[in-house]
């Protein structure tokens, strides 16, 4: 029994060490992830509303994704901008021109 627990402990330690090594090696890519859902949705909503000219309800239904919950959306119709909050980050996209469309701030 002691032998089995010893092997289990060594195996668990190796799995934890490999997981930590993976995170350390890929930290530059993993640290950017929290910013992606809010920036993606802000840009897509802005383009849908102000470039394509669709309604707000249509755009929200079109952009809907279930991977990460969105904490909030703010629409500035006069300033032609969209702000989205997700994963403790907030990103804003605004309409520039017909040629350039929407850009992230």
Structure description:
The chain is of the alpha+beta class and 105 residues long. It has 4 helices and 4 strands. Strand 1 and strand 2 (81-86) form a beta hairpin. The N and C termini lie far apart (60 Å). The mean pLDDT is 89.
Describe the structure concisely for a colleague:
The chain is α+β, with helices and mostly antiparallel strands and 105 residues long. It is built from 4 helices and 4 strands. Strand 1 (72-76) and strand 2 (81-86) form a beta hairpin.
Notable traits:
single chain; 105 residues; alpha+beta; 2 domains; 4-stranded antiparallel sheet; 4 helices; 50% helix; elongated
Q: State the share of residues found in helices, binned by percent.
A: 40-55%
Spatial separation of the terminal alpha carbons: 60 Å
- How much is the average pLDDT? 89
pLDDT < 50 runs, ≥5 residues = none
Q: How many strand elements? A: 4
Main sheet summary? 4 strands, antiparallel
Order of strands in the sheet with the most strands? 1-2-3-4
Portion in beta strands = 15-25%
| Topology as a string of helices (H) and strands (E) | HHHHEEEE
Query: How large is the count of helical segments?
Result: 4
Derived from helix and strand composition plus strand pairing, the structural class reads: alpha+beta
> What is the total domain count?
2
């Amino acid at each position: 029994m002691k032998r089995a627990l010893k092997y289990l402990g060594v195996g668990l330690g190796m799995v934890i060490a490999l997981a930590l090594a993976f995170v350390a090696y890929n930290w530059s890519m993993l640290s950017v992830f929290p910013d992606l859902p809010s920036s993606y949705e802000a840009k897509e909503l802005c383009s849908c509303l102000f470039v394509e000219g669709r309604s707000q309800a249509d755009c929200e239904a079109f952009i809907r994704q279930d991977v990460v919950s969105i904490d909030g959306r703010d629409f500035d119709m006069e300033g032609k901008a969209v702000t989205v909050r997700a994963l403790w980050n907030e990103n804003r996209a605004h309409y520039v021109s017909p040629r350039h469309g929407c850009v992230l701030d």
